[in-house]
Amino acid sequence: MTLSIGIGYDIHRFQEGRPLKLGGVLVPWPRGLTGHSDADVLLHAIMDALLGAAGLGDLGQHFPPHDPAYAGADSLGLLRRVRELVREAGLEPLSVDATVIAQEPPLAPHLPAMRRTIARELGLEETQVNVKAKSHEGLGALGRGEGIAALAVALLSRRSP
Length: 161
Ligand code: MG
Known about the structure:
Elements: E1 2-16, E2 20-22, E3 25-27, E4 31-33, H1 41-53, H2 59-62, H3 75-88, E5 91-101, H4 111-122, E6 129-134, H5 140-143, E7 147-158
Parallel strand pairs: 5-6
Antiparallel strand pairs: 1-4, 1-7, 2-3, 5-7
This protein binds magnesium ion.
Residues 10, 12, 35, 41, 44 line the site of magnesium ion (MG).
């Protein structure tokens, strides 16, 4: 079995009045993230990690950010599509680990739902998916709560021909 690893990173700014979607979960908060799609920064980082591990480039190549087809797109739907692309390329996800960097809101109560949602969409057990949250210790733009960033790694196995 050949293993392949990918890394993903994304960052989005806060915007008043937008819903906050993280890991496919609606987090109750007065501000959401700005973006062409639903701006789910965590799913975007995970998709880039999956595409990276499969040697399939990045999210923007598959879902161009200015394409009207993806305006307000549900990132869970995009994750489903990425899972298909990865499988068509002959690879299977084995595990995903991710960290959300957010000064606010407190995310600990929402992490189990994110983990469950991501595992379900990828056809994985919950033990194969991990989601963590960190504050930014008040440092820089993230520390001032101007946006949220996410990091992810994905491990894939390549099916034998
Ligand atoms: Mg993004």
